[in-house]
Sequence to fold (323 residues):
Amino acid sequence: QSAGIQHLAPVYLLISKNSRDITDAVGLVKQVVGGVDILSFSGETLKLNSFLDELQTISAFSPKRLVILKNADKLKKTTLQTLSEYFSKTNPQVHLILTASAVDKRTSFYKTAELSGVILDIPEEKPWMREKTVQRWLREKVYQDGKQVEPRACELLMQQIGTDQDLLVQELNKLYCYIGERPIITYEDVCAISSNVNVDDIWKLGEAIFHFNVSVALEVFKALLDDGAPFLTLLRQLRSQFQSSFQICTILACGKGRDEVSKQFPYLTPHLLNKKLQVAQGYGIARFKEGLLTIDDTEYKAKNSLGEEAFLGEMLIVKLSTK
Fold:
């Protein structure tokens, strides 16, 4: 956006593992370039010759053309090299947007894109930092939409949905319909609309895991599934507990104490803070880190149908709650 004040670039390379970041960045480039003819392609299905023809096409009907290539990191090396050659001799009428989840900065593709245009490279955040960023974004989003959200409601929404901003937007739209003209989203509103899982039960599951009580953890987990709790929602809520406890372990490992933990988690009552500190010290930073990786692996397998959800869940619970 700031680069557009000086001049429009022929190439915009937008890099982020977060789809919402990419969507917002593409929207900003469209605003900067202005009303133009837009074509969109995907790196997975790209036909190079047809794509290059579009890049070289001169339109008699529009002074500017915007060509978008999504998932450029899926392209073959030879295709990336061909694009690098185009960067050095671009069509003055075309503004090319490339999106990717990651690009090696050592490659000629990255270096020529940097010389020819503008690169927005958003680094991946640590899980606990990501949670804070999304919480702040969520509050700002609600405010921009002309509403407010109670802190407890915001916390619960994050526990239920996780940090997927697209899913959070969907949930907000449902909440807006539910509250109507009321200006504030309350904790009770989120419970009524978004709470697919009993919060008390998910905390019982976490406590059983953190105290290495395998049988109780399995019992609570099976009960949640039997009650119709969505499997991925369970994983997101479990991940949220692991992330916050891992952050507490990190604070303690840096030599900081209770006051710093309280500062980072102002919504915790003294009683809950004591419980969190005990859990963090008892379960240990290494187990929390390994647990987060195991949860991510389970979610990946579930999304790609690499096993029955009930079986994947039981295997996960056993791994997490075994010393």
Remarks:
- The first helix runs from residue 2 to 6.
- The mean pLDDT is 86.
- Residues 115 and 164 are 33 Å apart (CA to CA).
- The chain is about 60% helix and 10% strand.
